[in-house]
Design goal:
Chain lengths: 174, 176, 643
């Protein structure tokens, strides 16, 4: 018994060392992922932000796979991903947007400058929809399947290399 | 207006960890926006001693905070409950703060959500559960009791037990 | 030139550390050799020179900052020519490389101190101790020289610096790191003494008496550092919190817990020759916690507002050092402690028994804090993201803390070796009655909503009364200084806990958005916003609110909370305006304005919150008195022995 007690501290230290070394070698993923992936879209009704573009009502978001893009005009990486979104739209993907903490004028200017891939744009002035989706920042893109479930979450701006993955996810979501 | 604590950049002893350029406006930039647009890594980590000022990847959301972000509920009991809950919910865009201690916009929106739901009659447990359904256990500072956290919650008792076992050896075996 | 000289001094210090290690090896192995006297003299002098060289290196770094020498990378990234002088100096340690240099400087100076002042320990054991200290130094000198050189040049020199983080431009925070480092790294002496004693199989009262002043000194600095850090966070961060269970804060608390246990354990070893294995283990654990803390803060594996940004290769280097030093020391412990005889035994109900209980409970707290801090990392390895904060720590630690308070109250009232419960019961009657009375009164006032804090205050009252019992009815002038130290330190614990409980139970918060001319009530105060105007400082501009505060019918006083905007680097900070009164603090913060002319005002009335830090100061004062008392006693004993 005494031997166990005497060597226990060293054994414990070895355990801690291994844990910590693991943390160094493979740093954990610090991004906060949504826990809603795989679950149905929460019921949301967001008013229209722009004249002529309908707001987002999640009841309508079913029937075919689509993308739900959380963005803002004040978000710089959103500018970077705009070309990719346009490409996806040209490939026939339906993209709906939720503008976080944004104003009509700013979004209009943003779309005029960067292109408008959105079928609908919802107004989320106090991040309520963002919180309901489990999104923790902008930009993020959700793949919604035909039944209205969240199939996949892409965190951060969409780059060229991500387009293929998104298209594949949309295929799977049929 | 806690510039640093509420944002992604470690305010500690990091040299040259400059914030984004302050956006000038009539009312002056009260918060350094870091809670919105995403960097590649989600959390900005300044590696090594960078001389270059990190280019501003953020700009301000010019909208004011949500109504209930900085206003207390009229009913003091509800407000106490809401405040106690806010102290135990994690700000998702900060470096380890509760939403009660953060100036980030998103933290303010979360506070508004908490207050609104408590005012509507939900219990703190229900609000916490709603958020955990969205963000996982990461969002609560009160780890749930589960197989993963069992060792954590049992630790005090186990340590006490081991300690008593060790301490027993110090005492005289028989009465002198 | 200065930078090169600084680097040269650093390398020289490392060389002397190597020589010190070799001399120590020689002196320890040849303890019986009559020539060992010369080796010991050489060893002591080498340690002294090493300390001085490290100090020189650090002084030269400070000189670079004072001169705002922008041709050095560290100065260019952490300073600015317009900075007030005090912050230029503080900038030297307000970054990773500079603070590591401070770390090794304190390590070397502590070793020099042991070499200079330790006279009574057996030569061979002292040699082993100095050798251990040198061995630790070598690893960290290597880290500095190869992975964290503070003296790297910038070519071409920058026109001016990037400035020091405005949060650090505060007198309190300027001195917080040096105080903490003196504490953390001062514990290295205890570690080295323990290693030396294990190597030479010389564990006894002499070893404990040699180690005790160093443990006390390091512990005092840690207490001051943690207390000051907590108060700084409280007034600087703008939300009225004073402890966040942040991993870096925990990293400073863990060595303190171990050092507190060690402090008590070493006295038992010194006076009763008991608790040998505990004392050795605690001495190793205390500095191990310091090193682990240093690692955690700089490795980036835990998310914290305080963390340095350091790249993973540096983290790996420190981790390797940790493995060698802590692993080596624990292996040595395993191998040798069996041959260290048991020492005297004692009854369960005795002062030794209470001290064992104290060790046990402090170790449990240490273990819980350690596990709670690292658990998210472990969970991550299992694929789960967890956050562990105040809810867990409070639930897990409050019961243990209350038990600890009870043990602290009863301990000094117990006799050494053997005592009995009846006698103890008689002695604790008055403190228990005081606690019960306090509980009854507060419970009646505050009701069931604040049961745990009220219980905490009651326990604190009991402890407060119990801690002065040893000096009641005693000739005060003839009471040894170290007894006063114990009394005041324990009283400080009671005061601090009372403050924590009072703040948790009785604080009131008011958030309001008001226009100039309107007022808000918080607690017994009516606060009116008189105006909001701009202000200018040396390197900042600010918006300042003028708040007029009135308590009941009392005189009106004014408070001026600010929002400050700095340009290099561009950031803003909150300067809370705090009014400290006899029965608490009124804490005011200015928030954002909106386009309707309303300003956010955040107000807190915190009754008795200052007791928290007052208690901390008392604890440190008690430690200081105990240190002076012990040192004087040893000196007198020496004088008599040589008379």
């Amino acid at each position: 018994m005494r031997r166990v007690l005497i060597w226990a501290p060293l054994a414990l230290f070895a355990l801690v060392f291994a844990l910590v070394a693991g943390g160094l070698i493979r740093p954990g993923d610090r991004t906060v992922h949504s826990a809603m992936v795989g679950k149905p879209l929460p019921a949301l009704v967001l008013p229209a932000l722009l004249p002529g573009k309908p707001g987002v009502s999640t009841a309508e978001l079913k029937g075919k796979p689509r993308l739900l893009n959380v963005f803002a005009s004040w978000c710089l990486p959103c500018i970077a991903e705009a070309p990719q979104l346009m490409k996806l739209k040209e490939a026939g993907v339906e993209i709906d947007g939720i503008a976080i903490r944004d104003t009509s004028e700013a979004v209009q200017a943003f779309l005029a400058r960067n292109g408008d891939p959105y079928t609908r744009i919802g107004d989320d002035k106090v991040s309520r929809a963002q919180l309901a989706l489990g999104s923790s920042g902008v930009p993020e893109t959700f793949v919604i399947n035909a039944e209205g479930r969240i199939a996949y979450q892409h965190i951060g701006d969409i780059r060229e290399e991500h387009v293929a993955e998104l298209l594949a996810q949309l295929e799977k979501a049929k | 207006m806690r510039g640093f604590r509420s944002h992604n950049r470690p305010p500690g002893l990091v040299p040259g960890s400059t914030g984004p350029r302050v956006v000038a406006s009539r009312f002056l930039p009260f918060t350094l926006r870091r809670s919105g647009p995403r960097h590649k890594a989600g959390v900005t980590i300044v590696v090594g001693m960078t001389l270059a000022l990190t280019a501003s990847a953020f700009a301000d959301s010019k909208l004011p905070p949500a109504d209930l972000a900085h206003t207390q509920l009229a009913d003091p009991t509800q407000e106490t409950r809401a405040k106690a809950l806010m102290d135990t919910l994690r700000c998702l865009v900060c470096q380890g703060q509760s939403i009660a201690d953060s100036d980030a916009d998103m933290a303010g929106d979360m506070r508004a959500l908490v207050r609104q739901r408590i005012a509507a009659g939900e219990s703190p447990g229900e609000v916490r559960k709603w958020l955990v359904q969205r963000y996982g256990d990461y969002v609560t500072y009160d780890p749930p009791l589960s197989w993963v956290t069992a060792p954590l919650w049992l630790a005090p008792l186990v340590l006490l037990g081991i300690g008593i076992l060790i301490a027993r050896r110090n005492f005289a075996r028989r009465k002198p | 030139m200065i930078a090169e000289a600084g680097l040269a001094a650093l390398w020289l210090a490392a060389a002397f550390a190597l020589v010190q290690l070799m001399l120590a090896w020689g002196a320890a192995r040849n303890g019986e050799n009559p020539n060992v006297g010369m080796l010991m003299t050489a060893l002591r002098r080498t340690a002294l020179v090493q300390g001085l060289l490290a100090l020189l290196s650090f002084a030269l770094l400070i000189a670079l900052f004072v001169r705002s020498d922008m041709s050095v990378v560290l100065v260019a990234t952490n300073s600015h020519s317009l900075k007030p002088m005090i912050y230029k100096v503080a900038g030297a340690w307000g970054n990773h490389e500079g603070s590591m240099l401070l770390w090794v400087t304190v390590l070397a100076i502590s070793g020099a101190g042991v070499a200079a002042f330790e006279r009574r320990l057996a030569s061979a054991t002292l040699a082993a101790t100095l050798g251990a200290q040198a061995a630790i130094g070598l690893g960290f000198y290597a880290f500095l020289a190869f992975a964290s050189n503070p003296f790297v040049r910038l070519n071409p020199a920058a026109p001016d610096g990037q400035g020091l983080n405005p949060l650090l431009q505060d007198p309190g925070l300027a001195f917080h790191p040096p105080t903490l480092y003196l504490g953390y790294v001062g514990l290295s002496v205890a570690f080295s003494f323990a290693v030396g004693a294990l190597v030479m199989r010389d564990v006894g009262p002499a070893f404990a008496r040699a180690m005790r002043p160093w443990v006390l000194a390091a512990w005092i600095f840690l207490t001051v550092g943690i207390t000051a850090g907590s108060y700084w966070a409280y007034y600087e961060l703008g939300w009225g919190g004073w402890w966040f269970w942040d991993p870096v804060e925990n990293a400073s608390l863990m060595p303190w817990l171990a050092a507190t246990a060690l402090l008590h354990s070493v006295t038992v070893l010194a006076t009763r020759d008991g608790l040998r294995a505990w004392t050795l283990m605690l001495a190793l654990v205390a500095f191990a916690m310091s090193m682990i803390g240093t690692f955690l803060v700089r490795s980036g594996i835990l998310v914290s507002v305080h963390a340095f940004a350091v790249d993973p290769t540096r983290g790996t280097f420190i981790l390797a050092l940790l493995g060698i030093y802590i692993g080596g020391a624990l292996a040595l412990f395993g191998a040798r402690v069996g041959t260290v005889t048991q020492g005297s035994t004692f009854q369960l109900v005795s002062r030794e028994g209470a001290l064992v209980l104290n060790n046990l409970l402090l170790s449990v707290v240490l273990g819980v804090v350690f596990i709670g801090t690292l658990y998210p990392l472990a969970a991550q390895a299992a694929g789960v993201q967890l956050s562990i904060g105040a809810p867990f720590f409070n639930k897990a630690l409050v019961p243990v803390a209350l038990a600890l308070v009870a043990a602290t109250a009863a301990g000094p009232l117990l006799r050494w070796r053997r005592d009995n419960m009846n006698a103890l019961a008689k002695r604790v009657l008055i403190p228990t009655a005081a606690a019960g009375l306090a509980f009854a009164i507060l419970f009646a006032l505050a009701g069931g909503a604040h049961f745990v804090p009220v219980l905490g205050i009651a326990f604190a009252v009991g402890l407060g009364v119990a801690s002065v019992v040893p000096v009641v009815r005693r000739n005060l002038r003839r009471t040894p200084l170290y007894v006063w130290g114990m009394v005041i330190a324990h009283l400080g614990v009671a005061v601090s806990i009372a403050g924590m409980a009072a703040d948790s139970a009785f604080k009131t918060e008011r958030l309001a958005a008001i226009q100039v001319g309107q007022n808000v009530t918080v607690g017994p105060f009516r606060v009116t916003l008189a105006e909001v105007r701009p202000q200018i400082g040396p390197n900042w501009s600010a918006l300042e609110a003028r708040l007029q505060v009135r308590r009941g019918d009392g005189k009106m006083f004014e408070l001026f909370p600010q929002q400050r905007f700095f340009s290099t680097p561009p950031t803003n900070t909150n300067e809370a305006a705090i009014s400290t009164l006899l029965d608490g603090q009124l804490y005011t913060v200015l928030g954002q304005g909106d386009d309707q002319g309303r300003w956010q005002i955040r107000l807190w009335w915190k009754p008795f919150v200052t007791l928290i830090w007052l208690g901390g100061a008392l604890i440190a004062l008690g430690g200081l008195l105990a240190l002076i008392g012990r040192v004087r006693r040893e000196r007198r004993a020496d004088a008599e022995a040589w008379a």
